[in-house]
Amino acid sequence: MNTLVFRAFRHTFSYPPVAIWSLMAIGAAIMGPFGTYSVFGWWARVAYWFVICGSSVFVAYLVRVGVSHFVRDDNSFLFDTLNVFGFTLVFSPIAYGLTVILSFDLTGTIPPAWQMILFVFLVATMVNAFRRVHRNSQLSHFAAEETGSLHFEGKDGDGDVITDEPPQQNSATSDCRLLERLPDDIRAPILHLSARDHFVDVETQTALYSLRMRFSDAVAEMNGVEGFNTHRSHWVAREAIRSDVNKDGKLFLVLTNGTEVPVSRSFRPQLIAAGVIAVG
Predict the structure, then answer these.
(1) Distance CA 210, CA 188 (A)
(2) Mind telling me which residue stretches traverse the membrane in this protein (predicted)?
(3) 252 in a domain, yes or no?
């Protein structure tokens, strides 16, 4: 649970999410939608929208992870439906409670609870609709990539740069091809890879960068770096492993930067054989 909360927090304050919700908060504070212009003074409105926008990203991440445990296909209508209703159920009390707490300079009327729930539901529905459109666009890119017509390197607006040249699969002079995809200002030894939807989160000692590619391809490009799959969606470099820890019967590897990476039962034997974790 602590690892999940940490990952949700890190996602909320990583780029570009933090830039997006911060700009949305500033715009909302200026325009004062949903009656907040009449309910709050300027500073209360700024605080309100910054907390609302930031916490909504945090809660949305947690809800999506929770829903993914029950519905594996994140492109299904059922996944989106449960995501919308789950977010509405969890976030509505937060939004309403914050409205009441910050209404110390009240000049208008606080919207009733049912109206707040409706607002949250409608916003969640619109966000999921936009995500579905964007996701379908991504899938069309990946369909092209499967045929070899598209390959991703570096970064574009989403963190990637598109190039028509496929990466060299067996270059004797290249030590870690995945490292070449990172921007120069954050290029450092890679500690951890994790799959997220159609992206791979690449973690170094001080940075987290997302690349749009398959997880298996990212692992293949870690040539020259000894490492292990610890889970179907996690890979760690051997030199990054500091220790292991058991929490509620679940095993995690603790990395040098403090990240805790889950170890699934199917991958334990190879880690034991390599001497990474002890038997038992």
Answers:
(1) 14
(2) 20-40, 46-65, 77-101, 113-130
(3) yes
